[in-house]
Design a protein that fits this description.
mainly alpha, 3 helices, 84% helix
Length: 97
């Protein structure tokens, strides 16, 4: 499975998550789980997240497919390095006696 198929799968997954978020928000409004006063406050946030989840995969897929393979490898290496640094920072420090 190539990187293009992986990115298309990722885009499909995020699009599905955006649809699930819209459905759950709608159900919350219909079942009156969410208070109308709170709903007005959070509608902008929910819509922003849905738009982000819908548009971001397409942008990422087009950007990823536009760069050469060596740059893709470099980006993956940088991502792994940052992940390792963050993981190392979360570990508790050993205290001496």
């Amino acid at each position: 499975m190539g990187a293009s198929h992986f990115m298309q799968g990722w885009a499909t997954l995020l699009g599905s998550l955006a649809m699930i978020a819209l459905i759950l928000t709608s159900l919350g409004f219909m079942l009156r789980i969410v208070k109308p006063a709170d709903a007005v406050r959070y509608v902008g946030d929910v819509l922003g997240i849905v738009i982000l989840l819908t548009l971001a995969p397409g942008i990422l897929v087009s950007a990823w497919s536009a760069i050469p393979a060596w740059q893709q490898i470099a980006l993956v290496a940088v991502g792994i390095g940052v992940w390792q640094l963050m993981r190392r920072g979360r570990q508790p420090k050993k205290q001496g006696k």
